[in-house]
Amino acid sequence: MVYFSVFIPHHARAQSDGDDAYDPFADYSEFDESTDEEADINFFRHGRFFTIGAAVGYRGFTDKLSSLFSSGPTYGIFMSYFFDLRLAIQFGFLTGDHAFNYTFPDAENFTGNVNMTFLNFDLKYYLNTQNLTRGVADLNPYFFGGIAQVYRTKTLSGDLGESKDNTLGLNVGGGIEIPISRKKSYFALQGTYRYFHFKDASYHFYSSTGVMSDIRPTGESYDFLAILGMNF
Fold it and tell me: What percent of the chain has pLDDT above 90?
């Protein structure tokens, strides 16, 4: 009986010591889960799941396209889906018409209209502004990059007539986003540079009398937009 009574406390103490032993894997797992849970709670309380906005702005062109196509207004819509507080994917639709004007070396002049439509798919990242002053932090600066499907419809005078083509392009840009109406909506200013290359950019074009142009239609586009949107 004495042996049994001595053995029981010793066994219980050994079991208790075993329960209190440090398990690095268990402790790390609990810490990791706690951090993830805290991030999830913060996102559900202060984050956004989805945004949609209407955009209007100005589109211009570079290189030789700047002398062939006029700059002009552009408009469209943007939609974003958020993975967390700072990372989102953005879908965009932008379109606009631009006047075409070119005079060949023999003085023959071609005029018309060019419609440029872009379907954008971008990855969007908002900078961490926690350590910045409130005025700067409220601007919510962001950057984005992605791809664009570019559609072009040319309606030109003379024998050139109407033509349609499309190509794939690359987007890169950034902006600021100001919350309004208790963060239920926002106003953004955004700039985008877009690289694309149509097949005819590698060739000269010709007048109705066979005179070759002295330029090739090379160049890219850029946009400056104002966006008014809603948060969900």
Answer: 56
How far is it, in rounded angstroms, from Cα 207 to Cα 53?
43
d(CA 129, CA 131): 6
Which position has the token pair 């409220």? 138
Question: What are the CA-CA distances from residue 64 to residues 28, 123, 220 (Å)?
Answer: 59, 30, 9
> Model-level pTM?
0.77
Exposed / middle / buried, residue 173 (Cβ in 10 Å: 0-12, 13-18, 19+): buried
Tokens of 218: 């090379």
Structure confidence by residue, pLDDT tens digits, 126-179: 998 877 777 677 888 999 999 999 999 999 876 667 889 999 999 999 999 999
Where do the domains of the chain lie, and which CATH numbers do they carry? 48-231 (2.40.160.20)
Does residue 192 contact residue 225 with C-beta atoms inside 8 Å? yes
Q: What is the pLDDT of residue 31?
A: 46
Q: Which two tokens stand for residue 13?
A: 């103490």
CB within 8 Å of 190: residues ≥ 6 apart: 55, 57, 173, 174, 175, 223, 224, 225, 227
